[in-house]
């Protein structure tokens, strides 16, 4: 009974699977565009930031260092948390470090947002396409069973199977860009996190001088 009902469902065809893959492809492209725009809008400019920050820290100028990190980017947001902690009179190096580590985790979550969609589509689109192919093959054999003597059985089956394989091809076509974009985005976020950790170490190395600078300002 159950097998018969599943067969009836399969005989409805696999066209809906293709439409599902098209929807998933559109969602994948939308996420790619969203992340690319976000990453471009929050680009770092590390080549200019690092030497300028090093000089500000070497000079012990808290104000100059804070001015360099006003923009909304991964690295600057992390550094700003540490500098704000110092500006409030934070004397404990470990406390400043923990504040910035927490900021890195927060920024990672913000930059990784929506990437799960790409991973899910990339991992499952080929299986969805394969499911459509299986449905198509079931239909092909069903048509073979219903074929009359004057019909070319091979032509009926091969035509149906060739249509069924389209679903697998579309599934792979949808998955490849999603996986590639996901891997690129994760690598991009990882590079930003490494830059943040590197400049965080630089800030902590000059922490005591910024403390002294802040104490002079308070006096």
The backbone outline, from C-alpha atoms, is rod-shaped
- How would a crystallographer describe the biggest sheet? none
Helix content: over 70%
**Residue ranges: pLDDT <50 for 5 or more in a row?**
212-219
How many runs of DSSP E, i.e. beta strands?
A: 0
Order of helices and strands: HHHHHHHHH
Per DSSP, what share of the residues sits in E-state strands of 2 or more residues? under 5%
First CA to last CA: what distance?
Answer: 87 Å
- Radius of gyration over alpha carbons? 29 Å
Count of individual domains:
1
Structural class: mainly alpha
Q: What is the mean pLDDT? A: 84
Supply the number of helical segments: 9
Please give the structural blueprint.
Elements: H1 2-10, H2 15-41, H3 46-58, H4 62-68, H5 74-87, H6 93-112, H7 115-146, H8 153-205, H9 207-218
Structure, described:
This protein is mainly alpha-helical and 219 residues long. The protein has one domain. It has helices at 2-10, 15-41, 46-58, 62-68, 74-87, 93-112, 115-146, 153-205, 207-218. Helix 3 runs antiparallel to helix 4 (62-68).
């Amino acid at each position: 009974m159950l097998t018969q009902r599943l067969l009836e469902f399969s005989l409805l065809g696999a066209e809906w699977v293709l439409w599902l893959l098209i929807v998933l492809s559109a969602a994948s492209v939308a996420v790619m565009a969203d992340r690319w725009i976000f990453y471009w809008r929050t680009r770092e400019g590390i080549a200019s930031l690092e030497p300028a920050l090093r000089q500000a820290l070497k000079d012990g100028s808290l104000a100059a260092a804070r001015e360099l990190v006003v923009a909304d980017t991964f690295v600057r947001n992390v550094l700003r948390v540490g500098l704000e902690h110092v500006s409030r009179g934070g004397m404990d190096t470990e406390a400043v470090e923990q504040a910035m580590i927490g900021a890195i985790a927060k920024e990672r979550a913000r930059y990784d947002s929506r990437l799960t969609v790409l991973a899910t589509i990339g991992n499952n689109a080929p299986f969805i396409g394969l499911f459509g192919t299986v449905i198509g093959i079931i239909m092909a054999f069903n048509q073979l069973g219903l074929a009359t003597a004057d019909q070319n059985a091979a032509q009926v089956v091969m035509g149906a199977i060739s249509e069924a394989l389209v679903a697998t091809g579309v599934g792979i076509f949808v998955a490849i860009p999603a996986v590639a974009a996901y891997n690129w985005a994760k690598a991009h976020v990882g590079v930003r996190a490494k830059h943040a950790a590197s400049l965080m170490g630089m800030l902590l190395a000059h922490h005591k001088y910024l403390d002294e600078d802040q104490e002079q300002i308070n006096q």
